[in-house]
Amino acid sequence: MWTVGALSFAVPWALAGLISLPVIWWILRLKPPLPRRIIFPPIVLLQRLTSKRESPARIPPWLLALRLLLAAFIVAGIARPLLNAETKLFGEGPLYLIIDDDWAAAAGWAARQSTAGDMIDHAERQGRPIVLVPTAPAPEGAAPPPPALMSADQARRAIQTLQPKPWPSDRAAAINNLLADSTLRGQRPGDVMWLGNAIEQPTGAESAKTAAGGIVTMAALTQRLRALGAVTLFSASEGQRPIVLRQPVTDGPALEVRAERVDAVGGRGIQVRALAADGETLARVPVVFSAGKRSASAKLDLPAELRNRLARLEIEGIQSAAAVVLVDERWRRRPVGLMTSSGGQAEQPLLDAFHYLGQAIEPFTEIRKGSVSELLGRGLAVLMLADPGRLPLSELKGVEAWLDQGGVVLRFAGPRLAREAGAGDPLLPVQLRRGDRAIGGALSWRKPEQPAPFARTSPFHGLDVPADIKVRRQVLAQPSLDLADRTWARLSDGTPLVTAQKRGQGWLVLVHTTANAEWSDLAFSGLFVGMLRRLVQLSQGVAADGSGAPLPPIANLDAFGRLGDPPGGATAIAADTFTKAKVSPAHPPGLYGTAVARRALNLSDTTGRLQAISNLPAGVETRSYARSLARDLQAWLLAFAALLFLVDLVASMMIRGLLGRGLNARMFRPALGSGVMVFCITLAATAHGDDTFARENSLETRLAYVITGNRNVDNISDAGLTGLNTILWRRTAAELGPPQGIDPSVDDLSFFPLLYWPVVSGYVLPQGAAPNVVNYLRNGGTILFDTRDQAENAGGATLSRLARELEIPRLVPVGPSHVLTRSFYLLKEFPGRWTGGALWVEKAGERINDGVSPVIAGGHDWAAAWAIDENQRPIFPVVPGGERQREMAYRFGVNLVMYTLTGNYKADQVHMPAIIRRLGQ
């Protein structure tokens, strides 16, 4: 490539053709234009004919200049000039393309891919190999590819399939692997282009450590990379750098929403949106960064009913896992009802149990007061009873029924319970001895006892027990075989402090001391608050699992903040270590647990404090991501050359007299139209593009499938449609070409009547794909979405995201009279590899596109049922129906293709009885 200022030439040797311009000038000057022919009566002129010597006419100067300009345009076009195309590269060896593909890359991923594509183009024009080095660790169970020399085409394909990861990068490990690779040794100095994310330590400083234990900064890493060649660091411009949404903090009845940014330049405002599990927006709150400040916060105050529906917080307009906080039971407000005995000390709050309970639980829950019947009528999560004694029978029945339905009753001991305890009290988890144990009493202590550390089987496991808590008095439990199983907390002497019993779906819990400071110091401690918080969480089945049982992943976020199916490498987290878990390839951000106990692992737990990159070594160039300004001028130059050729042709004909005045008038419009047509055709023909795709797919009818980036799924899709093609060829008149894999963001979908779309966890709709797909659906195309999960919720979450982006209307199950049930075979169900779920289509409306539904959705994994190998044998088993079920899956495929190819013509069958009656047959 040869560069002159902002203009570059991809084929510079073609400029040697400019040497021919003087030769062309000399030839044109030497050879005159052909003489003008005039039709005239010869006799009169012959009479006056005189012989004289004449000089041949020379070509007009303007025509000479026109032809020289035409030749110059052709030569320049062949040289392929590029405007603003050249990036300054210093070396002659490989182009090392290092890409931070972690969570911080998601928000500007399109710009990063575009910049990488530009760098690859530059390397290709200079004939240099490329080494691609992603810095984020590979998903769990997948080996990271070693650094290797790639061609430009290989690098482009790798960039297209590369996606950001929802966990931090490990830059030090990536650079160590690059520098230690033996295959790259001996290469000439090249250029290192690091497409970074402007953050110094996105991992919180735990993954990039030297052997000595220090932090490896970007300055140190770039200094090491200078051994490979000149280093250029790309990063987002100020104001476009990552913003992290931190976990909210409970502030009384409200949530304090907090955000942090990398730079502190200028003021900036963002909108944080509170969403329910179904995607409904519950509230929006503005968060404003003041000039010079890197953090900002705002209060989100929601009624208890809405707050308990809160599922996630997200920053509007930023697609990143760091801009999302998943909310679990820790942030929901569980209404707690307080019912104290009539002998409360309202005028002396420091003696009142109600005062201590209210102060302890108010920061994280909603307090409701009243009688038992009033409280149960409003809906509660927990009912707290501070030494109420025996309840009236009417209230007792209501409490027991509420317990069976999942409520939690928390009861505290006191003088009343000590006097009235005995057999027959239904609101006790264990039998109690009459009286109480106190210093100097019948069951005396020599000294106050301290709570013992909590057992692993206790919901309180993990809470620290302060050494200054003393219990001076308690009610004692009668020894029994199940007492140990019902004990959640003990004193240091082994006597129960908290006991509990499962009642139906709820829990009955007894604290064997008072809720105030009368019998113990527990109410003064932070342990009291922690224990109450755990018990309130217990109301929704989210108690800390003291057994340490693993919490498997339920749904995980991708790097763009979209919740979907867990990736294959995601593993469970032990419940007792969940609060210490960090986001990693083994533990992506998302929801973990079971249907009754969910915990949220958020990326903000791992990111640490954001710090901008600084103190780079001298000689390291820094740039910002910017849209490429390169323009290929070849098409325009050749098009103008074609236009000049037409002008030259017309001028030559006029000089020779072939275009008379009348002929000019008659031919002006056709000539103008022909010129414009030739110009447009030339421009289109010289534009860079591969028409192989259009040519192959327009010559024969094909079925297509979406390339998901998951090689296994894509291979199944190809094999499945190949098997369906074979069945169609054997049983119908349809002869289809081989299936075509397509990228909805770049390929023309209009060639395909049916598009099979396997829904894959973590699939992100490429930029520009949504308008292409929407246009395809609106103009007669049909897409079969297959979640491949037997219509369970995991794949449905990914499909729901696609439905919102592709503007898919609400779908309804296929009815018994739908054309899909009889377009070729008569069917009652539509099995694939799995069976049992519904098939969904667009609700019938106006007869647009012959009544064919543009969207068909299900979860039966049809491609796996259709798939055959090279010997035309089925690849995957089908369950539970075996080969009979596979046959029905093929029949559904035949019906589906006939439905999309022939439209809704068989819908007229419903009118057949009426037609026969009219004919009198």
Notable traits:
921 residues, Rossmann fold, 5 domains, seven-stranded mixed sheet, globular
State the gist of this model.
The chain folds into 5 domains: 2-33 and 58-84 and 633-686, no CATH class; 243-319; 336-540, Class I glutamine amidotransferase (GATase) domain (Rossmann fold, 3-Layer(aba) Sandwich); 550-607, no CATH class; 693-910, Domain of unknown function DUF4159 (Rossmann fold).
Q: How are the secondary structure elements laid out?
A:
Blueprint: E1 2-4, E2 7-9, H1 20-30, H2 42-47, H3 61-78, E3 81-83, E4 95-99, H4 109-125, E5 130-134, E6 149-150, H5 152-161, H6 171-180, E7 190-195, H7 218-225, E8 229-235, E9 243-251, E10 254-261, E11 268-276, E12 281-289, E13 295-300, H8 304-307, E14 310-315, E15 324-326, E16 336-340, H9 353-361, E17 367-369, H10 372-378, E18 382-386, H11 393-404, E19 408-412, H12 415-420, E20 437-438, E21 473-474, E22 487-490, E23 496-503, E24 506-511, H13 526-537, E25 550-551, E26 553-557, E27 563-564, E28 573-574, E29 590-593, E30 598-601, H14 604-607, E31 621-624, E32 631-632, H15 634-655, H16 661-686, H17 692-699, E33 704-706, H18 711-731, E34 740-742, E35 754-758, H19 769-778, E36 782-786, H20 793-805, E37 811-813, E38 840-842, E39 855-858, H21 862-866, H22 882-902, H23 912-919
Major sheet details: 7 strands, mixed
Q: Give the low-confidence spans.
A: 202-214, 342-347, 541-546, 686-690, 791-795
Strand content: 15-25%
Number of strands: 39
Strand order within the widest beta sheet:
17-16-18-19-24-23-22
- The level-1 CATH class of the largest domain: Alpha Beta
In the CATH hierarchy, the architecture of the largest domain is 3-Layer(aba) Sandwich
Quaternary state of this entry equals single chain
Roughly what percent helix? Answer: 25-40%
Q: Alpha-carbon distance between the termini?
A: 82 Å
So what's the overall shape?
A: globular
CATH names the topology of the largest domain as Rossmann fold
CATH superfamily of the largest domain: Domain of unknown function DUF4159
